[in-house]
């Protein structure tokens, strides 16, 4: 019986021919029957893919043969074989869409000018030694509703592009002389964000190496991470220990909830938190956003939910 897994990784390295790398990655994914998303840019590669453990091992082994990608940190988690609707491999100006591709500098060692990477022990030690440490969430705000580091600053952003506008507006200028620990799901967003913050005058910037995934894998329920981790596949969220109390609240009854659902409209892209008891009601009707966008037009969604949004 096949065992399915999901791999999450990124690698910052100069790529002179992103389109050639895209074609190569597309061919690898098709060869081994993988699904998920791969983004290629002149700055490197970012991927989240699902498939059988045997085929993913072949894919990872081959990808690591490319110059500059030999040491990519691959994070493994359990999959179902139906975590992504299809394989998507694209070339984009940025690995993470902050909207400032010309500001990001990459060399053979990775992002130039990024924050100091900290492993789990180093994160905990810094917080224990300093009482002015600020965790800065590098994800979209809805992701933080179900899980975040204790006391974290969560910018009110809907997409990654919103970060630069908020930072440039001076919203966080009062934090410029405090130690900032940026974090995100797997490390790619906060690696870029930490460099952009340093360019804008934040003096002492760190990043959680390997992101939430690496920290929470090491700490489980005993560290500074609280709640669930939102993931961009059909699982929608994962926990790193048994008995984790969800931080989010059901939109219907306000009970603790960690799972986001689309409404019953086939075109719905609005994710709302729902507990198990209220999920049937949330997924059967139409949300306010869909009614406003398409009044009088209702095409029920199929049994399978539409694809979840990309990690932008």
TrEMBL record:
<dbReference type="InterPro" id="IPR036873">
    <property type="entry name" value="Rhodanese-like_dom_sf"/>
</dbReference>
<dbReference type="Pfam" id="PF00581">
    <property type="entry name" value="Rhodanese"/>
</dbReference>
<keyword id="KW-0560">Oxidoreductase</keyword>
<protein>
    <recommendedName>
        <fullName>tRNA uridine(34) hydroxylase</fullName>
        <ecNumber>1.14.-.-</ecNumber>
    </recommendedName>
</protein>
<dbReference type="Pfam" id="PF17773">
    <property type="entry name" value="UPF0176_N"/>
</dbReference>
<dbReference type="InterPro" id="IPR040503">
    <property type="entry name" value="TRHO_N"/>
</dbReference>
<keyword id="KW-0819">tRNA processing</keyword>
<dbReference type="GO" id="GO:0006400">
    <property type="term" value="P:tRNA modification"/>
</dbReference>
<dbReference type="GO" id="GO:0016705">
    <property type="term" value="F:oxidoreductase activity, acting on paired donors, with incorporation or reduction of molecular oxygen"/>
</dbReference>
<dbReference type="Pfam" id="PF12368">
    <property type="entry name" value="Rhodanese_C"/>
</dbReference>
<feature type="domain" description="Rhodanese">
    <location>
        <begin position="129"/>
        <end position="224"/>
    </location>
</feature>
<dbReference type="InterPro" id="IPR001763">
    <property type="entry name" value="Rhodanese-like_dom"/>
</dbReference>
<comment type="similarity">
    <text>Belongs to the TrhO family.</text>
</comment>
<comment type="function">
    <text>Catalyzes oxygen-dependent 5-hydroxyuridine (ho5U) modification at position 34 in tRNAs.</text>
</comment>
<dbReference type="InterPro" id="IPR022111">
    <property type="entry name" value="Rhodanese_C"/>
</dbReference>
<dbReference type="InterPro" id="IPR020936">
    <property type="entry name" value="TrhO"/>
</dbReference>
